[in-house]
Amino acid sequence: QVQLVESGGGLVQAGGSLRLSCAASGSTWSINVIGWYRQAPGKQRELVATISKDGRINYADSVKGRFTISRDNAKNTVYLQMNSLFTEDTAVYYCNAGLQSTAPGLQWLWGQGTQVTVSS
């Protein structure tokens, strides 16, 4: 089993920065891909950024050039550095991991979410 715990959300003014952390514990060897999604009020959950086991990174177009995903393998932690924040970035941010399992495909796991609020 894997557990994901997010931290680092909060209130920031537009143009500011925040860094989110997602600490994984348990059978972290099974994580194939890990990243961040977000869900704004009244909207569907959407991908923000992911990083795979072999280091491939994927960003949503809306955050390219502003957000950076990184990981510290020694700490089993993934970070999302968010710069030049817009009010539209306000959402609950969820850590998400795709886990290898005995079943075909990946098993998807979600963290509890952390609120990011960007004020104008």
Task: Explain this structure.
This protein is mainly beta and 120 residues long. Helices cover 0% and strands 59% of the residues. The protein is built from no helices and eleven strands. It has strands at 2-7, 10-13, 18-26, 31-39, 46-52, 57-59, 67-72, 77-82, 91-100, 106-110, 114-119. The strands form two sheets. Strands 2, 4, 5, 6, 9, 10 and 11 form a seven-stranded mixed sheet that branches. The protein has a four-stranded antiparallel sheet with strand order 1-3-8-7, with no helix packed on it. Strand 5 and strand 6 form a beta hairpin.
What's the shape? globular
Beta-strand content estimate: over 45%
Low-confidence stretches: none
Work out the number of β strands.
11
* Main β sheet profile: 7 strands, mixed
The helix/strand series, from N terminus to C terminus, equals EEEEEEEEEEE
Task: List the SSEs and their pairings.
Elements: E1 2-7, E2 10-13, E3 18-26, E4 31-39, E5 46-52, E6 57-59, E7 67-72, E8 77-82, E9 91-100, E10 106-110, E11 114-119
Task: Put the structure in a nutshell.
The protein is mainly beta and 120 residues long. It has no helices and eleven strands. A hairpin with a 5-residue loop joins strand 9 and strand 10.
What are the salient characteristics of this protein?
120 residues; 0% helix; four-stranded antiparallel sheet; single chain; mainly beta
